[in-house]
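quick one before i forget lol
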Amino acid sequence: MQVNKKYILFDLDGTLINPEGLINAFIYALDKYDIKVDRSEAFFIVGIPIREAFQRCYNFSEDQADEAFLKHVRPYFDEKGKFEYTVYAGIEELLDSLKKADKTLIVATAKSTIFANQILEHSGLNKYFSYVLGGELDTKKIDKVKIIADILNECNISNLDEVIMVGDREIDIIAAKRNGISSLGVLYGYSEPNELKLAGADYIVESTEEIKKMLC
């Protein structure tokens, strides 16, 4: 199936890159509080605010979550975690094909804009994107609905039928729906079983090759 869209918004973590450093930073912070977790137990944080993960899953108070984030997660991530990632197989070929098809590519991420730009530059993927927007560095609650709304406004995109959001978690699908744009869920990221279907994704694919066939 082909879906003709001019503007393609991509999530970053779990969609363009596998963010090992984010998980490493989270595990590192938990260790400071004598909480030992295996990597397989920590993957769920990809795509959700880390402060929220501390509170929801480990019973941290809001102040404790702030402390863990500011004292441990951010320093680790800023020093080395932001460069601990791999670009998913086929992503560069996908982005190159989309650009050659005259698509406008944009990153919409819950990660801070500063870190997102650093990762995109380090990976060499920045050349494919006309705009990048994430959260503010010190924002406690990341609102992906607002991030997409701001992108639509700041990029002067008025025809919502020309836009699609590509992501791996329900937060991407829900934010797309609330902004009146289409959504494409990818199964190679960090979604749980049936998460994308239950969130109401318009399309679901298993690989970057399927994205290319659908959107180019």
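fyi The chain has two domains: 7-18+86-215, 20-83.
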